Amino acid sequence: MFCLLCRQAAIGYARLSDPGLHFNSNTVRHTAISVMLNCVMEHPYMIYGEGGYCSQLMSCMQGSVFGKRGAGGVYMTGN
After folding, report:
1. CA gap 71, 1 in Å, rounded
2. What are phi and psi for residue 5, nearest 5 degrees?
């Protein structure tokens, strides 16, 4: 089991949504996040499958929003 405070989750999604604001562009972390986001935005159905809200949201928004559902009714988005 693992516990994540709402503040920590919000900071994580902010960093994920725009790594350029939070990390120097020549760091491994910035590069990894950018590659992952590009892959997810090109293939949104790999996140939750066809018919999943996460996948449909990202597909409809044409790569401008990242969304992922989590356990316990948590749903987070970032743009």
Report:
1. 11
2. -70, 150
